Amino acid sequence: MTNRLWTALGAAAMSAMVSAQTPTPNNNCDILQTNIQDVHNAGAVGGVYGYVWGSHACNIGTQALHWAFASTPGLGMNAYRLSFESGSGRLVQIGQSWAKHACCVGNDDGCGICQPTGEAGLRPMCRDVYTAGFNAVQARLGPRSGIDAFLGTFANIPVVPTNASVIDRKVKIAQGDMSGAAYPNAVWFAEGVYVCAEEQPSRQLNNASWRRMTVANTGGSPSYNWSVPSGAPTSVGEPAINAWRAQGNGLNTVDTSVVIATADVPGEGRFHVAGKSRALGGGMWRYEYAVFNLNSDRSGGSFAVPLSSGAAVSEVGFHDVDGHSGEVNDGTDWVGAKVGSAVRWSAAADFATNPNGNAIRWGTMYNFWFTSNAAPAAGLGLVTLGLFKPGTVDEISVGGLPVPTAPGPCPADFNGVGGLTVQDIYDFLEAFFGGDARADFNAAGGVSVQDVFDFLAAYFEGCA
After folding, report:
1. Using an 8 Å Cβ cutoff, are 76 and 65 in contact?
2. 379 near 425, Cβ under 8 Å?
3. Which residues neighbour 374 within 8 Å (Cβ) at sequence distance 6 or greater?
4. Residue-averaged pLDDT of the chain
5. Closest CA relative to residue 245, chosen from 274, 272, 277, 271
6. Separation of alpha carbons 346 and 390, rounded Å
7. Over the stretch 310-332, which tens digit does the pLDDT of each residue have?
8. Phi then psi for 304, rounded to 5 degrees?
9. pTM score of the predicted model
10. 65 has pLDDT over 70
11. Residue 192, Cβ neighbours under 10 Å: how many?
């Protein structure tokens, strides 16, 4: 079934398949993208290129994914650049596609022994293969804004306009974002994020996968061509924000100073939040953060990092990824500034003012950074992620990240999640043996065994 003929289905048939209804989830199916196999390069229009990734989908559950009508899975495709022009790795999302909707299913043994259950759809331990060319058909690509990634509800795919360009609805990337001169030694990544209504919430957390790519950005033909390198396997079941740590010091070189945490919205979806602090010299520090929304429909509407009293802040920055091809969501950049005892960024309009405002919606990653004269706290701390759509809580706290502020009344709470647990010891030792500057617990300058003694003494003394 890997060679499918779109002409046999037609755009009208695909539109009819996709429904806003939600089937009843079950505990026994689990979609997983196990490979990003190839690339479709649609060429460029006005200095912007269009790409699509090929994908392997596996059901690692014990019950079939029915793969039809209301339960049709959607696949959002993303592109990222990890670059070093600022002297340290910064991972940013540089492109996103609309969501590719499945039309039909094939079953093979690519993810185990395919189970002959007799059920329709993607059976347990079976794989379905989609080439990049198949995923690139525009009539299969629907707007992300019509999807609730947590519930798995889908809006209909609109008919492709007669004036659509060849790059519309695909992963659009500006040529300048791929410049080898502007971003020497950059590392590139492709990502896929599945949405599937049949999965229970606990099964949705592995729906993103990423793979390192190569980009021919030095001219020639085809120019700015993305391709899959040999020896770079797909990182399965995790989002591309993890590439910041995995390759943050250059190709295949781990940056242990990058810390990544997960944050769950009560009764809803998950965010991944990453952070890093770096000494610039002269008593100045650079703080970098990234927030990736895996599947929260409530989305992110603000982001705040606490500051110690009297801390100065400069070079406040922000980066997002733009929608395109008629997506209804606004692209107005967030504004960041020091507000009281925090550096805070927020969308230009709240949900009540503009429901289509620029929020961190599912399958997207935003970046935040600033420079300060405040050194990192001896332990890790809390940042705050505000939620865009109304719900039971307005914001969530994310622990275990570098912050330029005092660690509070209990310094031994190294991961900043509140209270002392053995995880604080594990996190401190990981930082210590990784040579992470945050393990300078006594702030004496440098990391030494004395920091271990001082940390353990504070830990066993407990919190007041």
Report:
1. no
2. no
3. 285, 307, 308, 311, 312, 404, 405
4. 87
5. 274
6. 15
7. 789 999 999 999 999 999 999 99
8. -140, 140
9. 0.84
10. yes
11. 28
Distances 293 to 219, 324, 360, 447 between C-alpha atoms, Å? 34, 19, 6, 34
114, 124, 108, 116: which is closest to 27 by C-alpha? 124
With a pLDDT cut of 70, the percent of the chain lying above it is 88
Per residue, what are the HEC states of the chain? CCCCCHHHCHHHHHHHHCCCCCCCCECCCCEEEEEEEEEEEEEEECCEEEEEEEEEEEECCCCCECCCHHHCCEEEEEEEEEECCCCCCEEEEEEEEEEEECCCCCCECCCCCCCCCCCCCECCCCEEEECHHHHCCHHHEECHHHEECCCCEECCCCCCCCCCCCCCCCEEEEHHHHCCCCCCCCEEEEEEEEECCCECHHHHHHCEEEEEEEEECCCCCCCCEEECCCCCCCECCCCHHHHHHHCCCCCCCCCCCCEEEEEECCCCCEEEEEEEEEEEECCEEEEEEEEEECCCCCCEEEEEEECCCCCCEEEEEEECCCCCCCCCCCCCCCEEEEECCEEEEECCCCCCCCCCCCCECCCEEEEEEEEECCCCCCCCEEEEEEECCCCCCCEEEEEEECCCCCCCCCCCCCCCCCCCCHHHHHHHHHHHHCCCHHHCCCCCCCCCHHHHHHHHHHHHHCCC
Confidence of residue 4 (pLDDT cuts 50, 70, 90): very low
CB 192 within 8 A of CB 208: yes
**Contact criterion met (CB below 8 Å) for 363 and 96:** yes
Domains of the chain: 9-255 (no CATH), 257-406 (2.60.40.1170), 409-464 (1.10.1330)
pLDDT at site 277: 94
Q: How confident is the model at residue 219 (pLDDT cuts 50, 70, 90)?
A: low
Angle between helices 422-433 and 449-461 in degrees, nearest 10? 170
Which band of pLDDT confidence, cut at 50, 70 and 90, is reported for residue 12? very low
Q: What are the pLDDT digits (tens) for 377-405?
A: 877 789 999 999 999 999 999 998 999 97
pLDDT tens for residues 146-155?
899 999 888 8
pLDDT tens digits along 328-353: 999 999 999 999 889 999 999 999 99
Is the pLDDT confidence value at 258 over 50?
A: yes
Name the β-bridge partners of 342. Answer: 306, 339
**Which amino acid belongs to residue 314?**
S
Residue carrying the six token digits 């110690």: 308
Dist CA 294 CA 374 (whole Å): 31
